[in-house]
Amino acid sequence: MNTLLSQLLQQDPGETLWIADENSKELLVEGFTFAGDLLSNRWDIAKLAEGRVRRSCFNDFRFEELEQRYRRIVYPVSKEKAVVHHIINCTPDALTEGGELILLGGKQSGIKTYAAKAAQRFAGGKNLQKHGANYSSTNIRSGETATGTMLDDQDYSHLRQRETLNRLYSKPGLFGWDKIDTGSALLAQQFTHCPPVDNASVVDLGCGYGYLCTQLSTLGDYRFTATDNNAAALLACTKNFQDLGLQGVVLPSNAGDELESDIADYLICNPPFHQGFQVEGDLTDRFLKQAARLLKPGGQALFVVNEFIPLGKKAGACFAEVEMIAKDQGFCVYRLRNPGEFKT
């Protein structure tokens, strides 16, 4: 699909907005440059695009922050339906009259269904074209677009408290946004391995809406640095920190890359392996190396992963002490200590 995407982006790029979700990163990694603007809800993609596009914007697909309209919007559809519906709903207001939204996707992406949905939103005909194994759908903004049917995006733009999350704030666009993840719950049960020391500092890598930090905060006096790659996660986590009065900061980062070294007495992590990001490289190694770098001397990290992920074996390259302390419902929790000479 990258060939088709690059071709479409080169057509009138100065008037084009590229909505770059997980499907777009590979093209940027290959060194692609673009004379138009890019919008992404992923920090790594937005940072990678800097200097390669005219303007790179990182937010939770808040089109009003772009402060202009475009003649063309090109969007390889995301994995999550609520995100796709939200973007289709918003794009008419981000297009000039006669402007076009172009959706891209492979056969298994749901592109045919999204093409039909976009036709409803734009009050026009379904325009689907096949390009080898991929498809594109083009929808034109016209006067009739205002009468089109809004799609169900689960009220994507708004945070909401969820009883299923102990009244924490969350929103669509996050993994398990309306339920407590089984792995995270198992990890939280092991927090007795993190006895509070005076003003102990905690880093949460891949914080999501902040569940792990909120659970640990009930056990002692901690200062938190919560970080995530996803804009929706940062919004939700920030709200929960404010609502519960947690001490600390919520920061964007790519697996902790932007954080200073030796800042954590404890590091907690439920890595986003469930989201299929392994295609970007060995994410397990990246998270382990970052954990070793971020821990203070004498600090320890607690990781939870699916049992099929060989974190126990890989962790030996970064930590002198690797111990599995819990295993249940297909998940394992590891305690990692003494990075010492393994720090990079």
Automatic annotation (TrEMBL):
The organism's place on the tree of life at top rank: Bacteria
High-level lineage: Bacteria, Pseudomonadati, Pseudomonadota, Gammaproteobacteria, Cellvibrionales
Identification of the protein by name: 16S rRNA (Guanine1207-N2)-methyltransferase
Xref: SUPFAM superfamilies: S-adenosyl-L-methionine-dependent methyltransferases (SSF53335)
Gene3D superfamilies in alphabetical order: Vaccinia Virus protein VP39
Gene Ontology terms for molecular function: 16S rRNA (guanine(1207)-N(2))-methyltransferase activity
UniProt entry tagged with the keyword Cytoplasm: no
Entry EC no(s): 2.1.1.172
Keyword terms: Methyltransferase, S-adenosyl-L-methionine, Transferase
Cell division found in the keyword field: no
Source species: Microbulbifer rhizosphaerae
Pfam families recorded: MTS
Residues spanning the membrane: none
Ranges of residues in domain Methyltransferase small: 168-335
